[in-house]
Q: What sequence folds into this?
C-alpha cells in the first residue's frame, strides 16, 4: 500500500471519545486502529456509521460494550503485533462475557472465516468494503451468532458518510479520494485485501474539505493507494462512464481542493512513479497552499529488481520523474519507500538502491525488510531466498545512509525561515509547540503568542535528522480570499 504513513507509535491503537448528536443507545464502542493513514481514515467512517446507530465511542476500553480493531496485513510483523493484541481482548472477553469483539480491515479480509476459528473469541469479521453492514453484524452477534462480511465491492467509496474525526489535534485531517489498488506490485497484499481501485466523486471530496475547514482544520491530506490514478467518471480502462458528466483527474481535483481556502493546506499520499504526471507537479507549483512535498516510493534502485517487483517503471524512469519535480518545483521535498532483501536481490542490486539514494538525496524514507505475504505474485513466482540476516544488514545500511541524508537536508535549513502550521503542544514540553513546515518536517519552537491552527514563520536554529528547532519570527494573519 502506497500510503505509507504508518502512523507513529503514539497514534497506534488510539481511540477518542466522540460525542454523538443522535439519540444514544447507552452502548459504547472502543476502536483501535493499526497500519496506514487509510486505516485511520476508515476508522473515522466506522465511528460515523456506529454513531448513527447510537453508539458513542470511548477511549477507555474498560467501559466498552464493543471493541473493534482495524487491522493491517502489509507485513508479517504488523499481523503478529495485532494477534498479540487480540489475545488481550480474548482474556478481557472471558472476564466480561457480553463484550463483542470485531476484527476489521485488511487482516479480516485476508483471513476471513479462519479468524473466527483461529482466534475463537472474535465475534465479527468485517472487510474494508463492508463497514455499512456493521450495525447488522452487531445485531447478528446479539442474536448469539458469529458474523462475517468480507465482500469486496467495485464501487463502495463511503462517499456520502461524514467521518467522525478521531484525530487528537483537530488541525490536520485525512480525506480518502480513492479505495483499492489495481497495480499488483508483486510483493504487496493490498490488492487482495482492499480490492479494485475506485475513485470518489469530486463533489463529496470538496464538500468534506469545506466541512473540515469550517470545523477549524487547516490541513487536509488526500489519500489513495495511488492518487495519480484518481479518475472520476472514467473506468479503470480509461472509458468515459457517463458522456453527460465531465471527467476529473488528480491534478484537477487538487485545484478544486486548493480553492476551498488559501488557509487550507493541501497534501496527498501516495504518488506512483509510473503515473505521476508533469501536470500534477505544475498544479502544485501554481498553488501556494499545496505543500511542496511528494512521497514517491521507489522500492529499489535496480531496473531488473523493479521488474520482478512489477512496479511498471525503470530506474531511469524514476530518475526522470525526480528531474521533472526538481525542474518544475525546485524546492520540493521528496520522500520514498524502500524494501531490502526482496526475492533474488543480489549485492549489486542492493548497491544500485544505495546509489539511487545518493543521487536523489531523499528528505525522508520509510524503509522495510521484505516480508513475504500469502497469495501475492512474489509468493507464487519467486523464492523468499535472501537470508534474514542479509535483509537486516542491507536495511541497516539503507537506514544509515538515509539518516545522513536527512540530517544534511535539515542542516541546510538552519538560518532559513519556514512556514509552520501549529498543531499543538510538543511531546516533550508544554512550553513548546510542534507543527510541520511546508515540506512536512516536524518543527518545534517556543509557544510565544501563537495558537493552535495559526500559521507562523519560524526561523530554524538547530536540528536533528528528524526535527527542526527554531523560534517564531511572525504570526501570519489569516489570508484574504
Ligand atoms: N514487505 C515489505 N514491505 C512492503 N511494503 C509493501 N508490501 C511489503 C512487503 N511484503 C512496503 C512498500 C510500500 C509500503 C507501504 O510498504 O514499500 O510502499
Ligand atoms: Fe502500492 Fe503497489 Fe501495493 Fe498498490 S500494489 S498498494 S501500488 S505497493
A:
Amino acid at each position: 500500500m502506497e500510503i505509507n504513513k504508518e502512523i507513529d507509535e503514539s497514534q497506534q491503537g488510539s481511540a477518542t471519545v466522540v460525542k454523538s448528536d443522535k439519540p444514544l443507545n447507552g452502548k459504547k464502542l472502543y476502536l483501535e486502529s493499526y497500519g496506514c493513514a487509510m486505516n485511520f481514515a476508515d476508522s473515522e467512517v466506522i465511528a460515523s456509521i456506529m454513531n448513527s446507530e447510537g453508539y458513542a465511542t470511548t477511549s477507555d476500553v474498560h467501559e466498552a460494550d464493543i471493541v473493534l480493531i482495524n487491522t493491517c496485513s502489509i507485513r508479517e510483523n504488523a499481523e503478529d503485533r495485532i494477534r498479540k493484541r487480540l489475545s488481550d481482548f480474548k482474556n478481557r472477553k472471558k472476564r466480561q462475557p457480553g463484550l463483542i469483539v470485531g476484527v476489521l480491515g485488511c487482516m479480516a479480509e485476508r483471513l476471513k472465516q479462519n479468524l473466527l476459528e483461529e482466534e475463537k473469541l472474535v465475534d465479527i469479521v468485517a472487510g474494508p468494503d463492508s463497514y455499512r453492514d456493521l450495525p447488522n453484524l452487531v445485531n447478528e452477534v446479539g442474536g448469539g451468532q458469529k458474523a462475517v462480511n468480507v465482500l469486496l465491492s467495485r464501487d463502495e467509496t463511503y462517499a456520502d458518510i461524514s467521518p467522525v474525526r478521531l484525530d487528537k489535534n483537530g488541525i490536520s485531517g485525512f480525506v480518502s479520494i480513492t479505495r483499492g489498488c489495481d497495480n499488483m506490485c508483486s510483493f504487496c497484499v493490498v490488492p487482495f485485501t482492499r480490492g479494485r481501485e475506485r475513485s470518489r466523486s469530486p463533489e463529496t471530496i470538496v464538500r468534506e474539505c469545506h466541512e473540515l475547514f469550517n470545523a477549524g482544520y487547516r490541513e487536509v491530506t488526500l489519500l489513495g493507494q495511488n492518487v495519480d490514478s484518481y479518475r472520476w467518471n472514467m473506468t479503470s480502462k480509461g472509458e468515459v462512464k457517463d458522456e453527460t458528466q465531465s471527467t476529473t483527474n488528480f491534478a484537477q481535483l487538487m485545484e478544486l481542493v486548493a480553492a476551498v481556502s488559501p488557509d487550507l493546506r493541501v497534501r496527498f499520499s501516495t504518488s506512483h512513479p509510473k503515473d505521476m504526471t508533469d501536470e500534477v507537479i505544475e498544479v502544485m507549483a501554481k498553488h501556494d497552499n499545496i505543500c511542496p512535498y511528494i512521497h514517491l516510493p521507489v522500492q529499489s534502485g535496480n531496473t531488473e529488481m523493479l521488474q520482478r517487483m512489477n512496479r511498471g517503471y525503470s530506474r531511469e524512469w524514476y530518475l526522470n520523474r525526480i528531474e521533472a519535480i526538481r525542474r518544475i518545483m525546485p524546492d520540493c521535498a521528496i520522500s520514498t519507500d524502500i524494501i531490502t532483501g526482496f526475492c533474488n536481490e543480489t549485492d549489486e542490486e542492493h548497491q544500485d538502491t544505495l546509489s539511487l539514494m545518493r543521487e536523489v538525496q531523499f528528505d525522508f524514507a520509510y524503509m522495510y525488510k521484505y516480508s513475504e505475504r500469502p497469495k501475492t505474485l512474489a509468493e507464487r513466482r519467486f523464492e523468499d531466498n535472501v537470508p534474514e540476516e542479509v535483509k537486516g544488514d542491507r536495511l541497516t545500511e539503507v537506514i544509515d545512509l538515509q539518516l545522513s541524508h536527512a540530517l544534511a537536508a535539515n542542516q541546510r535549513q538552519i538560518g532559513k525561515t519556514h512556514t509552520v502550521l501549529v498543531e499543538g503542544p510538543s511531546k516533550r514540553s508544554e512550553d513548546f509547540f510542534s507543527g510541520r513546515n511546508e515540506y512536512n518536517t516536524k518543527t518545534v519552537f517556543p509557544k510565544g503568542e501563537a495558537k493552535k491552527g495559526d500559521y507562523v514563520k519560524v526561523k530554524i536554529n538547530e536540528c536533528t535528522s528528524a526535527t527542526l528547532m527554531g523560534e517564531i519570527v511572525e504570526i501570519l494573519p489569516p489570508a484574504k480570499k
In short: The chain has 14 helices and 21 strands. The chain has three domains: 11-149, 172-411, 417-475. The domain at 11-149 is CATH 3.40.50.2300 (Rossmann fold).
